[in-house]
Amino acid sequence: MKRTGLLAVIAVMFVVAILAQSRQPAGTSHTGKAFRFNQVKDGIYHAVGTGSLAVVGNSSFIVNDTDVIVVDDHVSPAAAWVLLEEIKEVTNKPVTTVINTHFHFDHAHGNQVFEPNVQIIGHEFTRRMLLNNSIGMPLYRNYLTAMPGQIEDLRKRIASEADAAAKAKLQTQLQVAENNLASQKELRPVPPNVTLTTHMTLYRGTREIQIRFLGRGHTAGDVVVFLPNEKVVMTGDFLTSGLSNMSDSYPEEWVASLDELKKLDFDTVLPGHGEAFTDKSKIDYFQAYLRDVWSEVSRLKKEGVSVEEAAKRADLTKHKDHLPIQGPGVPPLAAMRIYELLNGSARD
Length: 348
Ligand SMILES: [Zn+2]
What we know:
- This protein has 348 residues and is of the alpha/beta class.
- The protein has ten helices and twelve strands.
């Protein structure tokens, strides 16, 4: 090769290296592993954050004969980037497909780290929300605007902490929060580039991967990922191991949609929050809770109680044996949502 040709090749390699490097988002630094991978069936993993990096929701991934499918991609580009790095320690097969169970920030804000040739699959509604103002919604706005105050608070606590071990722990929390904020600043929501409205099936060798919309519930466009041969279902926040967020929900329809989930033949649930579980009675407990939140908040509204007051007074403590409930009250965004639905003023 001529000298000029060689120089040109070196120059191109240099530029490619810089471009590859520049894809690494801000805020990825952390100590130890960011994820714990729980392999529930052959090649099927549930990824749960360890706390060394802000990831918030869980993801799952499926290692097939020649590729990897990721379900949900966490709270930030940094979290998704680190997930991909840690998946590389399990397999060198490429991630070809991402499935968004819904549009919420803690499940779909990693979409931007994937190359354009990766298929990002989600419900038509999820695409619409991520294309339009999903980051202007109260759920994400509240999350983002609280961050600087939390960082300031951690700094103050570090300054006044005398115990070395406690101080070190707070310092780790501060680093996690600062990294998360740095990554949120680079956020650019990316919508699914493949959509569905009822169902879609992916075939990979012997694997059948069904993506199903079971009706409105947690949002107007949640999908679950069901593997009939392995009897595994990935549920996002449609069904978690505890209480799901209700800020964009349809509580009454959610109960009926969960009945549809029960019709699927699975033995293992990989939820969007909490650990994997096999106990199907969790669905009944959550349905009972949803029915009672709806009737309790509706009752308070009928009595003329303000939405703020209803959020404090709604009493669901009778569900505390099965769900993480400490005392009376529901999240303000849940009460607000129910008031809006009753007023007929709720957005999609
Ligand atoms: Zn979530």
